Here is the input.
Amino acid sequence: MPTTDPAADPAHQEIIDAYVAYWDARFAANSGIPNPQDPALARYATGRQLEAVIAETQENLDAGRALQPSPDPVNFRRVTVVSVDGDSAVVQECFIDDGQVIESATGRVLNDTVATHSVQADLLRVDGQWRVSAATLIQRWEGVAGCALATS
Here is the structure.
């Protein structure tokens, strides 16, 4: 898989920034009191991915769940642009998910599992802005493992 030097290719950095912004928007929409109508979701997602993130956020709201950051976050994420073809792009991501799922009403931690994920995502440029149209989990490891241990 090719690696990307964002300083050498600003177009790739724009894609990476939009991809990361999608996950940030998802996390924000699902924090506190989940808001499936958060406009940032539609700003950074489109098509099936937008439908999926709205449904996930609605499910969290209905179930009284929310997301919150880990008290001691690992902060590991590596995103590489795999390909760009006109208004379509593919990225590959390796990240450590250490966010917590909590009970909204009480703050009780329901899930604090740490896992490493390898994700491939498709982005489309819609109205001049990159949006995530699909995100597929390729592999998941318990703890800090797998792609997070690979050298770049």
Observations:
- The beta strands are 65-68, 77-85, 88-97, 100-103, 109-111, 115-126, 129-142.
